[in-house]
Structures are given as C-alpha cells and as structure tokens.
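Q: Sequence in, structure out?
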Amino acid sequence: MGKKMFEFKTKTIVATGLGAALFTLLFMYVKIPTGIPETDIQTAYGVGTFFAALFGPIAGGLLSLIGHFLSDSIQYGSAWWSWVIASGLTCFITGLVYPRMRVEEGEFGVKDALRFNIYQVVANAISWIVVAPVLDIVIYKEPVNLVFTQGVVAAISNAVSAGVIGTILLLLYSKTRSKKGSLSKEA
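A: Exactly. Output:
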C-alpha cells in the first residue's frame, strides 16, 4: 500500500508542531550571514526539508510557514509575508518527494539522496527566485534589483542548507530504522 501524500494523521500534526518549534529556533539563532541584507544561510531549511521528506507536503509546508511567521513576529514584531509564504512553499514542494522516500524502511541510498535534492533545489528555485521577489514587489513595493538579488542568494544558500543538513539527517534517521526483511524468524 502506497503512502498517501495528503493524509493528515496524528503523526503529521505532531511532526508539524515539533518541526515548527525547531524551525523557529533555528531560524532565529542558527544562521550564517551572507553579506546580502536580510539574507542569511538558514539551517532551518535543512530541518524543514527533512521533516517534509519524512511526513509529506502538508507537514513541511505548515511547519516552515508557522516557523518563519513566529520567528519574524518574535524578532521584528510582524511577519514579512512574501518570505513566510516562500518558506511554506519551499518545504511543501520538497514534501512532494514523500511518497518516493523509503527512509522509514531503513533505505536512503544515493538515488534517494539525489531524488530528495532534486526536489529541494527545484523548490528553493521556485520559492526564492520567483515567488518571494514577485511578492516583495507586489506586496511591499520593494526595488526589483534588490529582491531578485536577495532571492538568488536565498535560493542558493537554502538549497545548500537543505542539501547538506537535510541529506545528513535523512541518512542518519534511515540508519535508525529496520530494513524491510532484515528480521528473520529463528528456528
């Protein structure tokens, strides 16, 4: 029986809450400046995409949307909605890989890592090079050259964060799972 991508079960709710809390904390406190204003390498995307690959697009989208919203609201008093939406979209799109992942069965090989990284790179490109800058212009009337520069830097840095941290977390987590057929009946 295949995984249902848009099921919202108890484990999805728990993963969303836990993931949102981790995302918020990492987004606020564990980031590396890039030199471009308001654009950091965010370790939160490594964790967000990890949760998205394990629990699907609903959990991924909600946890990053909520986490980014809370982080902005706590740090700045209000959310920067164009980037909050782009965060949610990034992990939602990455979560579309969920039915094809075998991490829960103890499998995460080169093909799985490649598949995960193709999804997250595409998600980051769409979210940060297209969606965030366009929404910055439409919602906030931000200068075109600034928002597209920020978008490209965010896409690259978030893809690196998701690629390195997300891949490592998926690999390590897969090692904690029993492989299908690895248990045999003793005679």
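Residues 12-31+40-175 form a domain with the Arp2/3 complex 21 kDa subunit ARPC3 fold (CATH 1.10.1760.20).
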